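Model it.
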Amino acid sequence: MATYQIPDEKLKAYEDTLNETVRDEDLGPPASEVEISRVLRKMDWYILPFVSLLYLLSFLDRANIGNAKIAGMAVDVHLDGLKYNIISAVFFLTYAFAEVPSNIALKLFRPSRWIPSIMVAWGIVMTLMCLCNTYKGLIIARLFLGLAEGGLFPGITFYLSLWYRRRDVARRIAIFFSAATVAGAFGGLFAYGIEQMDGIGGLHGWQWIFCIEGIATVVVACASYFYMHDYPGTATFLTATEKETVARMLKDDCIGLATHYDRKFVWQAVNDYKTYMQMGIYIGILIPVYAIALFAPTIVKELGYTAAHAQLLTVPIFVAGCISTVTIGILSDKYNTRGPFIIGCSIVSLIGFLVLYTQEAPGAGYAGAVIATMGVYPTIAVDLAWAGAAAGGDVRKGVTLAMVIGLGNLGGICSSFIYLTPQRFYIGHGTAMGTLGFSIVLSVITMWNYNRINKEKDALCEREGIDASRREEFKDMGSESPLFRYTL
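Modeled.
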């Protein structure tokens, strides 16, 4: 185990996770795998529960519109025709716009200031939505909610990549993303309980859903200013030796690629065709994810259950999704493989939607909803780990993730308009199956392409005698570095 103590001046040298100017000899000998595992577990306890709570609140606040709809909002605000679908969709316009600028800001400013600030912003918007009692008011509120919330998901995904190696990040993303499934489960329970406040303070039950959940976000956001840690090099819960272990671990993982901000790294991400391939995969799996999040209560209700029972029956659906998300994330990291898990899980989800499409019995339809959720929810975490691993260098990784998540989230607009024809929702289920098939095909192509590029780089390194000792020559090349390898 390494015992070298990093001087204070060296800690400053890699405040932004790890500065590329820190040399190997400054870090001492590599730590053992036992020591690395111990430090990873310590970081998990300090980081993962916290970021999972943040994302739980985020997903709860964006998806509670579905609970509010069947709690009386649709009747009270006269949401006939496509009005509810439009209210759901406008969120994604500003949400997608905010993600790339937010991830750049996260790199330029401290995460412990940026992330809590955007949380305060959307928590206030969410709270004030309880005063919206018109169609136009809800549209305006959802636009501002999307703008404020847009930075959290890509920000936390990027934030985790600054603490963990590429091989370790899928299970961590899965754990924090599983908060979305927990939000879906608790959203139904919360909505069922909060509905009983109908009439208190002159507000309807659905208005209290917005108010209470918004206030909870603001409270947690204020606490986050004091709890959130910025980077491994400045984390107070890590000892100097543990900081050295993380520094060595991250430096070896990024093969000495640049960690500082430069505009050229932004353009590397924007001009890389592989970014758009990952974006296509993400859109294909995100459309059914948001369809389930926004319409699960409606789908269950149309199976023949009452509104109150529909709220409660969404809980097992999302609990099943939570379990499968964490399980698949752990397996994906264990085998350091992404594409096959996305393909396999997408096929499972496709089967679930096929059951929903073909079966009339409420029990069979409910089982289909569970299978569809268990299949598609794990793909998000695995795909984001794949997209992040395909981008070399901190800034390029941050921009790539923001582009994939941001532009990919425009798929949420599609999700908002495909469940229009109850009771069987043929268009919605059929569209979900089609987009899952698209992601399966694109994942196969992406795996083939990454394997091809890796073989070409292997041949180049062997021919030119390139090894890790020359990584300083390629530090600004990002994914194009001959030392960089893609995860399949």
